[in-house]
């Protein structure tokens, strides 16, 4: 037996397992209808969950995009500070994040397609449930118990399939969302841990090193400013006085 | 014969097409056995296209059970294997 045929068997046995037939056809009809309404609710909730998860992923995607921009900025800063090694590391990380982002985007497009299909599936199920509601009243009113049982089986079987179909679509979309979420989280962790490159052992993160450089130059600037201020005021006697351009010229420029 | 394309809907397909569908089905099984996901997807795609091209879509308010159900076109190898082992990836019916 081929895969498709096997699939058909399994699918249909699951669909019919969903139908709990009672002795009284009227009870079966009402019970089945309740189940359909419940499944319709489940599917609606499932679609809402997937939509929410997808939005969260989109936000995460944006923040990862910002990470790429940040790494780009860091590379520029590093180059300005004559730290080609740091710039190289930042660009390496940027490339790694970008590659993963591209992958997530492709998966996101597939998820989008699945989501569209399941919204369609939900509409179809709603139409079938409505049709079942009308038919069940006709069956109740017009058929003998034996005839009704046959018609109920057929109608419930048809709708049971649709219930399974959208149920499966929701499950798969949820799985896909979770997979993407896991990947996105992994990227986040990697970027925040600064471990995307091979330089994990080197200890210093680009950010920290750049900060040290910029802090270093800030300290230099401040020092220079302080020196200038002190020089203009009363020179401290005990401390070694720094040469000042505006001083009396006792010292010669080096 | 009525065929359901999962995630898409039901189609009334002429019996003459079934032989072709069975051929594709055999190829699908081979693709799964060979672990060739691209072949699996392209054969599933062909199978679905054959149903679409030769079938008439049932309206949404018809409550007819299908004679055959075709798995999603983007079925992964893992899902296919799960399916062949115990039908695992199809969710159980709604709990009541």
What can you see in these coordinates?
The complex is a heterodimer of chains A (254) and B (96). With 254 residues, chain A is an all-alpha fold. Chain A has five helices and no strands. In chain A, helix 1 packs across helix 4 (145-193), helix 2 runs parallel beside helix 4 and helix 3 runs antiparallel to helix 4. The model of chain A is unreliable at 195-203 (pLDDT under 50). Chain B is of the alpha+beta class and 96 residues long. Chain B has three helices and four strands, in the order E-E-H-H-E-E-H. Chain B has helices at residues 18-34, 37-54, 77-86; strands at residues 2-5, 9-13, 55-57, 68-70. The longest helix of chain B is centred in the middle third of the chain and has 18 residues, at 37-54. Chain B is globular. The model of chain B has no long low-confidence stretch (mean pLDDT 84). Chains A and B meet through helix 1, helix 2, helix 3 and helix 4 of A and helix 1, strand 4 and helix 3 of B.
Q: What labels describe this entry?
A:
heterodimer, A: mainly alpha, 0% strand, rod-shaped, B: 96 residues, four-stranded mixed β-sheet
Summarize the structure.
The complex is a heterodimer of chains A (254) and B (96). Chain A has 254 residues and is mostly helical.
Model regions low in confidence, pLDDT < 50 over at least 5 residues of chain A: 195-203
What share of residues of chain B is helical? 40-55%
What would you call the structural class of chain B? alpha+beta
**What radius of gyration of chain A results from the CA coordinates?**
35 Å
Got a strand count of chain B?
4
> What fraction of residues of chain A sit in β-strands?
under 5%
SSE string of chain A: HHHHH
């Amino acid at each position: 037996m081929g895969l498709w045929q096997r699939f058909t068997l399994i699918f249909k046995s699951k669909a019919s397992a969903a139908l709990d037939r009672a002795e009284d056809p009227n009870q079966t009809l009402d019970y089945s209808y309740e189940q359909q309404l419940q499944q319709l609710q489940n599917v609606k909730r499932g679609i809402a969950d997937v939509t929410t998860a997808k939005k969260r992923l989109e936000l995460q995607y944006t923040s990862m995009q910002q990470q790429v921009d940040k790494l780009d900025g860091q590379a520029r800063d590093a180059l300005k500070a004559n730290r080609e090694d740091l710039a190289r590391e930042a660009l390496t990380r940027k490339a790694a994040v970008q590659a993963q982002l591209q992958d997530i985007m492709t998966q996101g497009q597939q998820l989008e397609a699945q989501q569209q299909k399941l919204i369609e599936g939900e509409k179809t199920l709603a139409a079938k449930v409505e049709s079942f509601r009308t038919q069940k009243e006709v069956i109740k009113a017009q058929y003998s118990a034996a005839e009704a049982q046959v018609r109920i089986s057929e109608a419930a079987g048809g709708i049971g399939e649709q219930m399974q179909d959208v149920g499966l679509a929701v499950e798969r979309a949820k799985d896909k969302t979770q997979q993407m979420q896991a990947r996105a989280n992994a990227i986040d962790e990697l970027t925040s841990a600064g471990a995307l490159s091979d330089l994990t052992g080197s200890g210093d993160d680009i950010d920290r090193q750049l900060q040290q450089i910029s802090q270093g130059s800030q300290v230099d600037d401040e020092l220079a400013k302080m020196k200038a201020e002190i020089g203009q005021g009363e020179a401290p006697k005990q401390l070694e006085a720094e040469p000042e351009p505006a001083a009396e010229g006792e010292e010669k420029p080096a | 014969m009525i065929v359901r394309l999962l995630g898409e809907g039901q189609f009334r397909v002429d019996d003459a097409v079934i032989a072709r569908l069975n051929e594709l089905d055999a190829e699908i099984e081979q693709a799964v056995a060979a672990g060739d996901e691209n072949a699996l997807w392209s054969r599933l795609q062909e199978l679905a296209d054959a149903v679409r091209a030769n079938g008439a879509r049932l309206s949404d308010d018809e409550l007819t059970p299908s004679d055959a159900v075709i798995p999603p076109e983007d079925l992964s190898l893992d899902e296919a294997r799960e399916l062949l082992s115990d039908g695992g990836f199809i969710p159980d019916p709604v709990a009541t």
